[in-house]
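To assess whether the prediction recovers the assembly geometry, we first specified each molecular entity separately, as shown.
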Amino acid sequence: MRFSPLAWAKLLFLRDLGPTEVGGFAISDAQDLLYLEDFVLIRQECSPVTVAFDDDAVAEFFDAQIDAGRRPEQFARVWVHTHPGNSATPSRVDEETFARVFGRSDWAVMAILAQGGQTFARLQFHTGPGGSLQIPVAVDWSRPFAASAWPDWNQEYLQNVRPDEFCHHQQIREHAGPLSVSEMLDGLTEHSHQFFNEKGPT
Amino acid sequence: MKILFINNDGAGFADHIEIADGTTVEQLFRKRVNEGNPADYLIRVNRQPASSDQVLQPGDRVSFTPTKIEGAGRT
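The predicted structure of the complete assembly is given in tokenized form:
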């Protein structure tokens, strides 16, 4: 699977812009579905360790993409999100989402980019005998690409990424002074317990 | 009558389809998604949430899109 330089730059920019995970869908070339031309954020609520798309925003995204003349296989097959730390290995929540949401599609890719740079991509397909395999992730420099658009990407981030209460608390505290390590760990642990008590351990 | 139907299952679908007069949202879902769980989809008609018994009208835009797309880093 290959990212255009523009899509890759945008994904890195958005990963590093805030304190949370982010997620979205990649937009594929119509003739080469594993060549990713762009990465689009969906309106989402995020924490440093979670990302959850807004259901209405997913539907709006589908409508907008159809109106733009794209087919679902171009905009709804490559689910991309980031992870904190160095591990891009899917969590249990990731696996459950991938199976439930994309398990009825002919094919789909779960792609993860970790904060530390590690990547993960798994292609699953349900045509023929079905199956799945981990595929390499690369940046394809062989085609012309547009310039970075940081102001636009920043605006897209502000419009779509809603940090959860813990992150708001953290940002407010940053104005008053940095959190101590113990305060930060306490907050993360509390948040993780809230999330994973609903989802089960990863 | 014809409606515009958008569905992500299978190969993905976004095209006009012919349905019988009086078809409800639930009937269309059962026919097109078959064993799928309605709770796993946001069902909209003309970009608005729809009830299962809503009767579709000519020219309606119906979409079945996935819900609860969420990820988490490993802890």
